[in-house]
Amino acid sequence: DTAVSQTPKYLVTQMGNDKSIKCEQNLGHDTMYWYKQDSKKFLKIMFSYNNKELIINETVPNRFSPKSPDKAHLNLHINSLELGDSAVYFCASSQDWDEGETQYFGPGTRLLVL
Amino acid sequence: GDSVTQMEGPVTLSEEAFLTINCTYTATGYPSLFWYVQYPGEGLQLLLKATKADDKGSNKGFEATYRKETTSFHLEKGSVQVSDSAVYFCALTIPSGGYNKLIFGAGTRLAVHP
Questions:
Q1: Using CA atoms, how far apart are residues B100 and A96, in angstroms rounded to an integer?
Q2: Integer Cα distance of A105 and A25 in angstroms
Q3: Which of A19, A20, A111, B36 has its CA 20 to 30 A from that of B9?
Q4: Nearest CA of chain A to the CA of B63: how many Å?
Q5: pLDDT digits 0-9 by tens, A68-98
Q6: Which site among B35, B48, B100 would you substitute to test the A interface, given the most A Cβ atoms closer than 10 Å to its Cβ?
Q7: How far is it, in rounded angstroms, from Cα B40 to Cα A24?
């Protein structure tokens, strides 16, 4: 069983479209995250939820909206996609949000905006 | 602000060579320190971590020691294998209200040749 899974694995779409990426974890963790990895492999946190509540909201365009229907799921919806949104998006989870807790990453969703 | 600086890659080694990847950090307080590894086409996996000064993290022959005096967490392995070829990320989390936000270095690509 995959611990942290993401769908889809690849996403190719046109500028201006709206798309969603889904993430699920079966580890029983309370905290989930979204990270963005750009073309130079640089990783930066976008959001974090703890028990369905938003606790980290970095400087991200408001076209990006996370949603956590329950603590095992954290989805990312992106409106009006732009070329610069092309990246790999990683979901992660940890037992809780205490500093130093190990985060477990999903396989990533590679988004290409044309 | 809080940041992580890694040596630039790529690092190219022959099998059985000694590996060092340098990592230094800037942080308020005493962060936890991590090394994550990303194999081609995959997500990130925790390689090792250390949560306080002088702690040594180790896993799969890799080691890193948390050095507060030099604010460093260099990754070492005595004898690399072709299967170690990957991108290695040094990262930290900030105590005191950081909500377990991982701050990553730029990553160092390692290529090991037979």
A1: 9
A2: 10
A3: A111
A4: 17
A5: 999 999 999 999 999 999 999 999 999 988 8
A6: B100
A7: 22
